[in-house]
Amino acid sequence: MILGATAFLGVFAVLAARFDYPAVLDGPANTVLPQLLATGQLGRAVWALYAFLPLIWLPAGVGAYCAFRGTHPGAMLLALQFAIMAAISMMLGLMRWPSIHWRLAEAYVAADPGQRDVLAAVFDGLNSYLGNYLGEFLGELSFSIFFLLSAWAMTRSASVPRWVAAMGLITGAAGLVGMFRNMTPAVATVASINNYLLPLWMIVFGVVLLRHRMQEPSTIEPH
User: Fold this and answer.
1) What is the rounded distance in angstroms from the CA atom of residue 190 to the CA atom of residue 142?
2) Is 118 part of a structural domain of the chain?
3) pLDDT of residue 206
4) Which is nearest to 105 in space by CA: 18, 31, 26?
């Protein structure tokens, strides 16, 4: 969680400087595709790294399940499922940039006007399905519920400060609200705040898991 949050901030900074991310996500194909290709192989490598970062939800989900299943076994099992869903959906959504979108960008710069219209339609469709619905909406829904369930379990843990659990609940709730940013601008402020709150919470959550010590299973003496 800690390394994932740090890598997220680093990748985000590079893409913001070289690709005008995340504002570029709302741009048309005639602007975004040439700009994507102009980032070069370094930009493509950064996108590839970004695409695999969601895999951190897998060990995070297992760690959270092992840490807090004692008081909330059902909730933490469900949280683990949502962590897996977040990893898969967000990874698939981000992978479109160094793979399908990259090939579209290569074809777009050499295409005639008629072909560019077709490529633009494919680009828009992939952004809607892989980006908005799968990567952003389903992915953010999944990790927000993972946070909410984990933070709820933390409220019953004597080893976790109450402010940490409250922070997790706030981050999860903000994620659920912010994921509707593509539907209404009314939640844009919440989504922007969550961009900073999310990595901070991931680091705090990682520290909680690092400090946790699982209890040894009790042994039953034979009679």
Assistant:
1) 18
2) yes
3) 94
4) 31
* 223 lies in some domain: no
Give per-10-residue mean pLDDT for the chain (223 aa): 90 86 84 93 93 95 94 96 97 96 96 95 95 94 97 92 96 94 88 90 94 56 45
* Within-domain flag for 170: yes
| CB atoms closer than 10 angstroms to residue 93 | 24
What is the value of pTM for the model shown? 0.88
pLDDT recorded at residue 112: 95
On the CB side of 61, CA atoms within 13 Å amount to 23
- The whole domain housing 134 covers 2-211
Taking CA atoms, 54 is separated from 57, 82, 135, 147, 220, in Å, by 6, 12, 10, 14, 41
Residue 183's pLDDT is 86
Give me the number of domains the chain comprises: 1
Q: Which of 209, 207, 138, 202 is nearest to 167 (CA)?
A: 202
What's the pLDDT score for residue 57?
94
Instruction: Give the integer Cα–Cα distance in Å for 97 and 102.
Output: 6
CB 46 within 8 A of CB 132: no
Does residue 116 fall inside a structural domain? yes
